[in-house]
Amino acid sequence: xxxxxxxxxxxxxxxxxxxxxxxxxxxxxxxxxxxxxxxxxxxxxxxxxxxxxxxxxxxxxxxxxxxxxxxxxxxxxxxxxxxxxxxxxxxxxxxxxxxxxxxxxxxxxxxxxxxxxxxxxxxxxxxxxxxxxxxxxxxxxxxxxxxxxxxxxxxxxxxxxxxxxxxxxxxxxxxxxxxxxxxxxxxxxxxxxxxxxxxxxxxxxxxxxxxxxxxxxxxxxxxxxxxxxxxxxxxxxxxxxxxxxxxxxxxxxxxxxxxxxxxxxxxxxxxxxxxxxxxxxxxxxxxxxxxxxxxxxxxxxxxxxxxxxxxxxxxx
Amino acid sequence: xxxxxxxxxxxxxxxxxxxxxxxxxxxxxxxxxxxxxxxxxxxxxxxxxxxxxxxxxxxxxxxxxxxxxxxxxxxxxxxxxxxxxxxxxxxxxxxxxxxxxxxxxxxxxxxxxxxxxxxxxxxxxxxxxxxxxxxxxxxxxxxxxxxxxxxxxxxxxxxxxxxxxxxxxxxxxxxxxxxxxxxxxxxxxxxxxxxxxxxxxxxxxxxxxxxxxxxxxxxxxxxxxxxxxxxxxxxxxxxxxxxxxxxxxxxxxxxxxxxxxxxxxxxxxxxxxxxxxxxxxxxxxxxxxxxxxxxxxxxxxxxxxxxxxxxxxxxxxxxxxxxxxxxxxxxxxxxxxxxxxxxxxxxxxxxxxxxxxxxxxxxxxxxxxxxxxxxxxxxxxxxxxxxxxxxxxxxxxxxxxxxxxxxxxxxxxxxxxxxxxxxxxxxxxxxxxxxxxxxxxxxxxxxxxxxxxxxxxxxxxxxxxxxxxxxxxxxxxxxxxxxxxxxxxxxxxxxxxxxxxxxxxxxxxxxxxxx
Lengths: 316, 515
Description:
The complex is a heterodimer of chains A (316) and B (515). Chain A has 316 residues and is mainly α.
């Protein structure tokens, strides 16, 4: 297990290198200059030159990359072009917020998808299966920002139960934290559950067809025990593997939701980085999301192997 | 009200009676309530907190709370004492002498003296200073500290809006010793204003706390303020409607009626200085001809733009761009609110433009009013025989590919004039040397008129010159004025004694309190 962890950690290095090069080139070749975005309507040619010189944007891209990467390796992501805020500390403050949002949303998605997916799998090609599959399609195709708007209208504006947005740290006020997180997590969780329901359903159908299930049935194992001890346990492995990908996707898709609910996470920095061509902010935010996704994938692989150690032996 | 507040109020009243007319009317006894945090909402992040660097309007509404200026402007744009208790202009108009208040301090406890004033201006005066509003200080030859509390500004030309410039957030006085020690004001702004800076989280909020040592005794009333940054317009409106946000002067026009119809919300909207104009490229095909530009000006249905793009929350500009509330308003009603298609067609016929001539209309995709007005303008252009195509582009690309190189037939822009001086409405837009004059037009005659208007000594002289400039601008139709958007301010009815400013500035928040 330790060897596997080390190998996977070592594989992060080339992945991060390639990701950073692609990101760096991408942000530098997209149309729209950082200087004009920062200076706005009154950007004179002199002011633009001054800005580009000050931030080293007038030098070759390769040189800019090497300098950026060298500093990034020691945790220095530079300062925002827009407001001169140091990017590294800002990212460190925001990563836990985004992780909390994505994690709770993932839990919501699991709470929806495991029972519904299992139900559909058990009732394969029966009424419940059709209903659940239709629901999964509906959930998966709903834009999360639209769902967010509906939730805000209902629970914040009409009923007044929850705030329309904003974030309070859990350590400051746990109740306010949960109240603020509920709607964004439900909006993200419902949309994510669309795919996860289908994965769970397929996994259950496959397990149900396996020989050992027949054996268990013939031994007279009760339906409840069959589901909890045999079917779900075995179906969880493919579910978790795909779930990890979905969790990574969740971390990446918080961008709009963070903006709609005014949550100061990494996602909102990605958005502001793109809109303002604020490259230090955009690069640091996007790279931190890449690292999070890599680590989550690693953790979920490890979890899958703990559930089914055969994966280590067979090299899956 | 607690005993100490009564005592404080009593002191304020006595102080007001003792000094009388030397202080702004707002300081004179009014029963205010101390405490509370005002939670406000804005749509954009500030571009830094250093007065010399912050180019954006959002920077300014932060800077004006943290720093002090020599002069303040009240809600009617009238100057009153700021850091300086008095000031005089020399008979020839070429020098101004300011007498600072005694005992002024910065938030870090250091004394604020004439040396800080000199340092502040020497920092922004050089050509390569990078100060975005250098045109405001270009007529200053030198700033001299006469003694610890007296500063003299020597000018190379009479500067009409000089007092207004001294009240501008960019002219905020910064602490010399602190900056010389390498302090970065963008990371932690230190001034002498009514509120101290606490923290800034990008795309989230800015926190302020009351400056207990503010020079206007008894001000401010709030314990602190939170500026929330809410980029999504609907999220901002929702925050107002639910009562989480107590104040905003950026309520989106689309939600304005829904917000102000909520119980407990006060409508404090007023016509401001956010005006929109259409820019014809003077080097593109038929637009080279002023008759064509005039024709387009007459064809536009500004009333429809007000309804369709601003939900009624704007005033059509029927003549020059200086608005009716400003002292230099000329009342030149050249355009009809609904447009005059016949007149436009006659002008086009005179210019010899063939029906069906193509034009492109390039708009910024993320500015809702621009996107909403585009089809209205397109329809108006079609009525007089142009086939207009609407192109849209996101902001950074727009600056780079459209605005910077003047690569458009027609585009539109808006400008929130941060000054109440008429020069700010016209020079940026019309002067040939301005970075905003991407129309590639303008005339020497108009440049001279604007310079003369800015340098004239009396208001009457200046007013007459601005009238002439505006007449000329409508004859040349350098740009095509559209509408003047209102400053859509709404706030909780618990907020008392707040006076909205037409420039969108919020200095008057120091005089308001929460009940």
